[in-house]
Design goal:
alpha/beta; 3-stranded mixed sheet; 415 residues; single chain; 11 strands
Amino acid sequence: MGSTWKIIPEQHFMQIITDSIPLSLSYVETQYSQTYVADSCKTLCLQFNCYKQIDVKCIHLYRIFSNATFFFHRFAPEKLYSELASDEPIQVSRESVLPDLLRCYANDDVVSSTIKVTFTDEEGEDCGGLTQDMFSAFWEQAFDMHFDGEEIKVPFASPSNLHGARNTFEVMGRIFLHGFILTGAIPVRFCQSSVMGAFLGSQSIPGPVLLRDLPNHVSEREAKVMSLAMSATEKESITDEQEDILFSVFARFAMRIAPLWGESLKDQLIKLARFIFVLKPLCILQWMVDGVPKNHVDELWSQLNPSDFESLYESLKPSVPRVLQSLRTESDLKPEEEVAFYYLKDFVGNMDQELLERFLRFVTGRPSASLSPITVSFNRVEGLARSPKASTCSNCLVISVCYSTLSEFKKEIFC
């Protein structure tokens, strides 16, 4: 098989993917055995000749690469993907995806295969969207059951159940790794400092990362007091109530020193964050690493540095401007479609973070950002049946043009 690298425009590749399914393996090997797909600022490294399954997997493979462009380009975990066996069927229930998936991955051979997901009592073929949906649902339930924190989550186990927790977190480590290899995404609510500490060690985490994660882990009230106290130039500018809150935070995490203010408090909070995110859950984080196949650690995670993790998390964090920029339409719009598209953009433009993540989960199968565009199309359905429809395998959203007002649209849109 040839090793010549070719350059083709991204839109050409997308046309090949969307218009030529199913593609034969021999055609792909002959025409695009090794291909760089370049856009204005990023390069996607696709080595089709590595994959066992092309045909209906083409869209799924493109999504994997486009979801984690820098990571795949630099560290080429497509090699890990290429070593996976054919599809392993996985069936889960939405109500019990956490125990169902833990049971599936108790067999560590699962990480040696690609997977084909079905949800109990639901129809649909998995071309990548159901896989993403399953991992998203798993981490939502896992964060509720086995993690602690407000927005940013840290793994937690009760001291009375450490023996049973070890097996659970080892399996979670396999799910974390396999989910990334298959989808190009990791759960961004899993504390970045904790993930970095697990693979790189606690001292490798930069202070700014720790200080950024800490306010998102504690309550909003505690975060505000921390911010005010760090910006204080003298102790007298901190009220007794605010000082009591800081004392309570320090006491809650067994930090038996008096909180200071300004730069001195910043140093204290860095130490506190390092304890909360890495040292306290160190045993659990090590269990998760133990659940990851050694060759995956050696070939991928041990090759990373702090800036790599920073880039990965940043690329996956959803934001309103990023989502608005990703909205695309298939052709020139009719007047009524222009109005409906404006309604959608206005709705997205005013979303808070929680609603934005719910919207992305509805359309793409996961609550994190994607480099793949969201394609919006339109119909003329009226009445109760006009609620938006989405295809998570292709990042497509279908909305009706039969809304009289923006208020009416917002009342009925996806949630």
